[in-house]
Specification:
Layout: E1 2-3, E2 8-13, H1 16-31, E3 35-40, H2 53-58, E4 65-66, H3 76-97, E5 101-105, H4 109-120, E6 125-128, H5 139-149, E7 152-155, H6 158-166, E8 174-176, H7 180-186, H8 193-200, E9 207-212, H9 223-234, E10 240-245, H10 253-266, E11 270-273, H11 278-287, E12 290-293, H12 297-300, E13 308-312, E14 325-328, H13 332-342, H14 345-352, H15 363-374, E15 379-380
Parallel strand pairs: 2-3, 2-5, 3-4, 5-6, 6-7, 7-8, 9-10, 9-12, 10-11, 12-13, 13-14
Antiparallel strand pairs: 1-15
Length: 389
């Protein structure tokens, strides 16, 4: 299949997380005269997840295609239904709109469905943040599968570039652009502590932690036990403000939410938010002493603020990490010891000299440059690239 141009681009977003990373790219595509359309789906239209489609509207970005889905993540059947419905619905939109390129970010199951739909429709894919490893979640295989269906690759680190090439992708199509999250930070106005406290009705204390904990989806049935270990460790802290954010739509995530809500209800100086919005989220990252949990943002974005990340368990196992990231087991005793360590003078000095391995920003600009170079090229569906052993 040959595509003679690359001017009509469809960007697909399914969560608050990926939109936060994609918004600057969407604006840059429009600014650079690409015919860029946006398809929003997943949790964006869910009341339970905070109607994050409003965050898209607040950025003055038009949602050209809305796919509202029932988000049922109680078990694997629910996830499979979401994927299968998404493939069908996205294929219909692609057949109608016929873009020259589909832009996908990350590794979620909906994004896997979008990749399948584009591949079946014989429409090229540009994949962002491929080549990474997250050994504790099923998304790891999704990410590599999306890579195999994509024609252009925009990776966040040179280590990930090598891995994408190892997966059989031509080196000429794999571009190291840095982390999209770093760019988002550079392009976001950060609120002062006083403004954040007033906006969110919270009060920071002598010590402050942001907690962002997700299920390890490869370890079935452990989420409730793990979140209890985390909460039991947090209960021992004194004079500490604890800010919890909602986990993503995954199997067992509601169990985590239930335990967090119980804790917040019975413990003053603790707060729970369904969705903070990126501007509030980054502003909090600048204020707090550390992020605790197993979110990718602890590895991709928190190091830019030169703040500590206490990375729990296996979910992010395999990612390139800054020296500001400390790994620990999800055991009460280990978490307590690790929290004490990140507050130590030695670790705080170490953080000051650390850097973010995901770059200093400018990812969208680099992506636009590559897309412009490919704009007039005939786009031929790829061949497997063999490495010489």
């Amino acid at each position: 299949v040959i595509r003679k141009k690359m001017t009509k681009i469809l960007v697909i977003t399914t969560t608050r997380a990926d939109f936060g990373l994609l918004k600057n790219l969407i604006k840059s595509l429009k600014k650079n005269k690409f015919n860029c359309k946006v398809l929003a789906s997943g949790t964006h239209f869910s009341k339970y997840y905070g109607y994050t489609s409003n965050e898209i509207k607040n950025e003055n970005i038009k949602i050209d295609f809305k796919l509202k889905q029932k988000i049922i993540t109680k078990n694997s059947i629910g996830i499979s239904k979401i994927i299968s419905q998404f493939i069908k619905q996205v294929t219909k939109i692609l057949n109608k709109s016929n873009p020259d390129l589909v832009v996908l970010l990350g590794d979620r199951y909906e994004i896997l469905g979008a990749a399948v739909a584009a591949h079946i429709s014989r429409i090229p894919i540009a994949h962002i943040h491929g080549g990474e490893l997250t050994n504790g979640v099923i998304d790891d295989a999704f990410r590599h599968s999306i890579t195999k269906m994509s024609q252009l690759h925009f990776v966040s680190n040179k280590v990930y570039r090598k891995r994408v090439i190892q997966l059989g992708e031509n080196p000429a199509t794999v571009h190291t652009v840095g982390g999209m999250g770093v760019e988002s930070i550079k392009n976001t106005k950060i609120f002062s502590q006083k403004i954040i406290e007033k906006k969110l009705k919270i009060k920071f204390l002598k010590k402050n932690l942001l907690i962002n904990f997700h299920p390890e989806t490869l370890h079935k049935g452990e989420a409730k036990y793990q979140v209890k270990e985390l909460i039991n460790a947090l209960k021992t802290l004194k004079n500490t403000c604890l800010i919890f954010t909602m986990p993503g739509a995954e199997v067992e995530s509601k169990l985590i939410v239930g335990e967090i809500k119980k804790f917040v209800k019975n413990n003053k100086n603790s707060y729970y938010f369904r969705s903070l919005g990126q501007q509030n989220f980054f502003s909090i990252l600048k204020i707090v002493d550390a992020m605790v949990g197993n979110s990718s943002s602890g590895l991709l974005e928190m190091p830019t603020f030169k703040k500590a990340t206490l990375n729990l368990g296996d979910r992010q196992l395999g990612r390139v990490k800054s020296e500001s990231v400390l790994d620990t087991n999800i055991k009460k005793k280990d978490i307590i010891n690790s929290i004490n360590k990140i507050f130590s003078k030695k670790f705080q000095t170490k953080i000051k000299n650390s850097f973010n391995p995901y770059g200093n920003g400018g990812a969208s600009e680099k992506i636009i440059k590559v897309l412009k170079e490919n704009k007039k090229k005939k786009f031929i569906m790829k061949k497997f690239y063999d490495i010489k052993f």
